[in-house]
Design brief:
Length: 234
């Protein structure tokens, strides 16, 4: 599908909402953690193979709509009886920014737009990623779907977000790698939507994307070179 160029009209953007995993941060971390390490450790504890563990833990989720449990650290700790946060730390060397993401955040720091991190990640997971990336200091506010009790893929999330953080959908840019989340944002009326071609640097690019797509955050900066980091406005 052919889309317009990824660079938005920045004169029309008052709020920028950014996903974390697969957007600002490389999804290689989450994919290795949940698809590899958790099944391996669960299988070792139960005397089964990693593949059997993977089918047992995640089989019921295949083809189904994701609910808050899918992203909930407490749910997976109960389900696996593993120290999920210790596994998060074990894989922390995979927590890296996507190409140009940090420079883009610095560039946004000089803009008038309010910058929000909007994620389905559990607050405990967000804390680990922030510890190793300093991401939260680069935005004006962090919002987790767990704050509202519903996922970004759902209409109630966007209503509750608008109540907690008023914004004009017509002047909002939202970037996410999840097409279902983008569909929900579009249904709410967010006018400027972008998606990521390759959320996980270790996997092939996504295909048949339904929204304007980019590879490197430099494509969004309208040819402006990013200036040094001064952190967020005070």
């Amino acid at each position: 599908m052919k889309h317009p160029r990824p660079t938005p009209d920045w004169t029309q953007i008052h709020t920028v909402m950014l996903d974390m995993d697969g957007c600002l941060l490389d999804l290689i971390y989450d994919n290795h953690l949940w698809n590899d390490l958790v099944p391996i450790r669960y299988g070792q504890a139960r005397g089964i193979s990693a593949e059997e563990a993977r089918r047992f833990l995640y089989g019921h989720l295949l083809g189904g709509q994701r609910d808050l449990n899918f992203y909930c650290i407490d749910f997976w700790r109960r389900r696996t009886q593993l120290d999920i946060m210790a596994l998060h730390q074990e894989m922390a060397h995979f927590i890296i920014y996507r190409p140009g993401a940090q420079a883009f955040l610095h560039w946004l720091g000089a803009k008038e737009a309010r910058v929000l991190l909007v994620t389905n990640a559990h607050r405990a997971s967000l804390a680990v990623k922030d510890q190793h990336s300093g991401l939260c200091a680069e935005v004006d506010r962090t919002i987790s779907s767990h704050d509202f009790g519903c996922v970004k893929e759902s209409a109630p999330f966007w209503r509750r977000l608008a109540e907690a953080e008023p914004f004009d959908p017509a002047h909002t840019l939202f970037i996410d790698d999840n097409q279902d989340v983008l569909e929900a944002a579009a249904a709410f009326g967010i006018a400027h939507l972008r998606t990521v071609r390759q959320p996980d640097s270790s996997r092939p690019p996504q295909r048949d994307l339904r929204f304007p797509v980019f590879d490197h955050f430099a494509e969004l900066m309208d040819g402006e070179a990013p200036k040094g980091s001064a952190g967020r406005r005070t």
